[in-house]
């Protein structure tokens, strides 16, 4: 048992490396539908939470806890062979090599010149290149995005339902009905930003604003049904934000800086992760209710929504300026 902490640390490092690597691989292979691809990756976590508990329980009953872990380790090692199929896409290699190689201008000689009358001369319109989002916009906004998701109040929905007088079976229904909403938020909502109905920054800002509204409405729900509906809406918006987090990082920092940005975000979040149980316990034990926690969540979400709103306006202004300069 003396080496158990070392095993736990090693397991945590492995999980962290795999998670960040999967994010980078998804961002490299998808451009237009990055949000949907990221949401499908996170949707796998939701489906695994529904399927694997029963599988692990059956394995534990059959082989014991240590045998269950050995079977799980064997499955993981076999899945590792599939990672050999995950290669860097050729278009990413080409873009990286083109950036590394300096451009060489070749000199060519002119052998003949043809002259034509200019009576019916016209200038062919120049096709404007695709306008992309600015990569230099507010890096602190992304860090605030991750920070605001730390105090995930969705983990308290069962306890809060019990505090409001709901039966235990009704409280567990909150988790059941939140799962479809979570899948919807991770797969369907990011499609709005991928299809350019609104920009991704605008989608994130709107999601944060609506999430703040749900956090304020949650303590005022009059019945269990209303409470379940509000919880489902909050879960859907949180799922969308989690799916959009790596997409926003890739858009504003570049794919090559995703790992660095993710690491900086993790270091920034470490104090909040350590203090999160004490903060939740303070509102539950000292204040007697989670109402203050949800109000704090609403304030944080409003602040981050405002930051992303500013970024969205600045991006829109830059896009208009570039379009105007290309059309002149």
UniProtKB/TrEMBL annotation:
One of its GO terms (molecular function) is monocarboxylic acid transmembrane transporter activity. The keyword Membrane applies. The chain crosses the membrane at residues 12-30, 69-86, 197-218, 224-248, 260-280, 292-314. Pfam families: MFS_1 (PF07690). Gene3D superfamilies: MFS general substrate transporter like domains. It comes from the Eukaryota. Keywords: Membrane, Transmembrane, Transmembrane helix. This is Monocarboxylate transporter. It comes from Rhipicephalus sanguineus.
């Amino acid at each position: 048992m003396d080496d158990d902490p070392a095993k736990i640390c090693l397991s945590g490092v492995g999980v962290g490396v795999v998670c960040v690597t999967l994010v980078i691989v998804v961002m490299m292979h998808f451009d237009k539908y990055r949000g949907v691809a990221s949401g499908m990756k996170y949707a796998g976590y939701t489906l695994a939470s529904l399927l694997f508990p029963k599988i692990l329980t059956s394995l534990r009953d059959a082989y014991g806890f240590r045998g269950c872990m050995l079977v799980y380790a064997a499955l993981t090692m076999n899945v590792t062979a599939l990672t050999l199929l995950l290669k860097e896409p050729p278009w990413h290699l080409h873009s990286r090599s083109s950036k590394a190689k300096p451009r060489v201008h070749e000199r060519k000689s002119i052998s003949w010149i043809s002259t034509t009358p200019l009576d019916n001369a016209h200038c062919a319109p120049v096709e404007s290149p695709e306008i992309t989002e600015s990569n230099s916009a507010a890096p602190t906004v992304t860090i605030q995005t991750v920070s605001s998701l730390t105090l995930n109040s969705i983990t308290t929905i069962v306890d809060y339902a019990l505090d409001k007088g709901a039966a235990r079976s009704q409280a567990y229904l909150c988790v059941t009905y939140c799962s479809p909403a979570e899948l919807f938020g991770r797969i369907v909502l990011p499609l709005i930003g991928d299809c350019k109905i609104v920009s991704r920054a605008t989608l994130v800002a709107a999601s944060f604003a609506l999430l703040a509204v749900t956090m304020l409405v949650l303590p005022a729900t009059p019945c269990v049904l209303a409470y379940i509906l509000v919880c489902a809406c909050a879960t859907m918006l949180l799922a969308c934000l989690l799916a959009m987090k790596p997409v926003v990082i890739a858009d504003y920092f570049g794919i090559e800086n995703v790992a660095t940005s993710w690491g900086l975000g993790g270091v920034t979040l470490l104090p909040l992760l350590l203090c999160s149980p004490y903060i939740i316990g303070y509102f539950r034990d000292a204040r007697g209710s989670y109402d203050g926690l949800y109000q704090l969540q609403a304030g944080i979400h409003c602040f981050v929504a405002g930051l992303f709103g500013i970024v969205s306006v600045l991006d829109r202004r830059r896009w208009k300026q570039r379009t105007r300069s290309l059309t002149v």
